[in-house]
Amino acid sequence: MQRWRRGAERLTVGASGHIFYRLHALCAYLQCLFVCVILG
Questions:
Q1: What is the DSSP string of 1-40?
Q2: I need a labelling partner for 28 at 20 to 30 A (CA). Which of 1, 9, 34, 37 fits?
Q3: Angle (nearest 5°) at CA 33 between 19 and 28
Q4: What pTM did the predictor assign?
Q5: Segment-wise mean pLDDT, segments of 10 residues, the chain, 40 residues
Q6: Is the alpha carbon torsion for 8, 13, 17, 19 positive or negative?
């Protein structure tokens, strides 16, 4: 049971890290788009 819980925690951390990475990439994309619109 302890081993299963540790695996679940690792899986949750990995998923949240992936979501954070996607969100960061989206923010960078929106910032680039915003700058392109202003300069364009």
A1: -HHHHHHHHHHHHHHHHHHHHHHHHHHHHHHHHHHHHHH-
A2: 9
A3: 30
A4: 0.55
A5: 74 78 92 92
A6: positive
